[in-house]
Structure formats: structure tokens, C-alpha cells
Amino acid sequence: MLSWVADETGNDKDFLHELMKKKFLAKKKLVKLGKSRNFAVKILSTTKLSQKDFARYFERVEGFFATYGYALPPHNSQEFQSLCETYKFL
Length: 90
Description:
The chain is α+β, with helices and mostly antiparallel strands. The protein has one domain (2-87). The protein has helices spanning 2-9, 13-24, 51-66, 78-87; strands spanning 26-33, 36-43. Helix 1 crosses helix 2.
């Protein structure tokens, strides 16, 4: 999906990948260093997600881009299958 959006928008696919990971896979953790407390942010890897978590992540990314006019066609359509073959997603 990110390759398709990158082609459509002129953005770099790797940039979009990192942006989506930061938006949807960032986990904050409160850490105490001496007397101060800060938040540490860990960005999860998409390759380490379970199938269920990846599907949820994909839905969120898909919804995010749809709000900007880059909606994927229905998943059971020929157009969607063609995009999958062209951009090798799903």
C-alpha cells in the first residue's frame, strides 16, 4: 500500500513507512532517571507484529490515507487485485 501512496503523492516509500510506524506503532513508557521522570518512546517493528496486530495496523494506515483521498478500492474488486499485483501488497 505504501508504494502505491508513494507513487500517487510523490513521497518516498521508506519515509511513509517510518511516518506510519511513528503514528500507529509508537509505545510510550514512563522511565525514571534519578529524580526525573521522562517518557521513552519505542517504535514497534511491523515485521515483529502478529498477523492480527498487522491487520489492525494495516486498517489504521488504510483509514489514515483514505481521509486524504487515497482510499483503496473494495478488497474483493478486480481493481484492488490489480493494485496488489502491481505493488506486491497483501
